[in-house]
Amino acid sequence: PQGSEEAKAFVSAFLKRSMPRKKDEAIQDFLTRKAVVLEHYSKKKTKPRRKKTKGFTAKQRREMRLFEIEPEQRRYAIFLPLHELWKQYIRDLCHGLKPDAQPHMVQSKLLKADLHGAIVTVTKSKCPSYVGITGIILQEFKHVFKIITKEDKLKGKIFFIVPKLNNVFSLEIDGFISYIYGSKFQLRASERSAKKFKLKGTIDL
């Protein structure tokens, strides 16, 4: 009948459009089966690239004075509560700092801990004028510590910036004394948490 011929022509044309990669012989082979599975070629969706958020440059941070502390806040007594919070943070980090705690375990925790609020002392230095400086760390940068002393000033400065290079620092908490060799500690606080520190027999300034 004429209707069946039209239906057959329609199906053949439809299959050619639906399966453009198939040859006529393959399409006829599909028609001899009871079920026909039509292939679908979907276009690959391209994922939009995420734009990386750019932070402030060092010049912009200086111009905005992001790291400056107001003059009325530059007093040692103001930061003593910060030191108390830091001590509690270290106790929690080291599971209480019990007397039977292993020193190397405490040392490894302190190396990766945040030191803002810690009281440190310069015990050794290639520059003798740094030795004996004791104060609370207010800011830690990659190469320097910015600390404030009990006298609120040192050599005419409210803050004292101590380079890590060629200096050895000590910090004490609940009877545990830890030493930091600044030359091997030139990392940002955020970078230290992922760094693996290796044990060395001797370390130079």
Automatic annotation (TrEMBL):
Similarity comment: Belongs to the eukaryotic/archaeal RNase P protein component 1 family.
Protein name: Ribonuclease P protein subunit p29
PANTHER family linked to this entry: RIBONUCLEASE P PROTEIN SUBUNIT P29, RIBONUCLEASE P SUBUNIT P29
A GO CC annotation given for this chain: ribonuclease MRP complex
Stated role: Component of ribonuclease P, a ribonucleoprotein complex that generates mature tRNA molecules by cleaving their 5'-ends.
Record's keyword annotation contains Hydrolase: no
Subcellular location: Nucleus, Nucleolus
Top-level taxon: Eukaryota
Binding partners and assembly: Component of nuclear RNase P and RNase MRP ribonucleoproteins. RNase P consists of a catalytic RNA moiety and 10 different protein chains; POP1, POP4, POP5, POP7, RPP14, RPP21, RPP25, RPP30, RPP38 and RPP40. Within the RNase P complex, POP1, POP7 and RPP25 form the 'finger' subcomplex, POP5, RPP14, RPP40 and homodimeric RPP30 form the 'palm' subcomplex, and RPP21, POP4 and RPP38 form the 'wrist' subcomplex. All subunits of the RNase P complex interact with the catalytic RNA. Several subunits of RNase P are also part of the RNase MRP complex.
Organism: Oreotrochilus melanogaster
Gene Ontology molecular function: ribonuclease P RNA binding
Record keywords, A-Z: Nucleus, Phosphoprotein, tRNA processing
InterPro entries for this protein: RNase_P/MRP_Rpp29-subunit (IPR016848), RNase_P/MRP_Rpp29_sf (IPR036980), Rof/RNase_P-like (IPR023534), Rpp29/RNP1 (IPR002730)
Transmembrane helix listed as a keyword: no
GO biological process: one example: tRNA 5'-leader removal
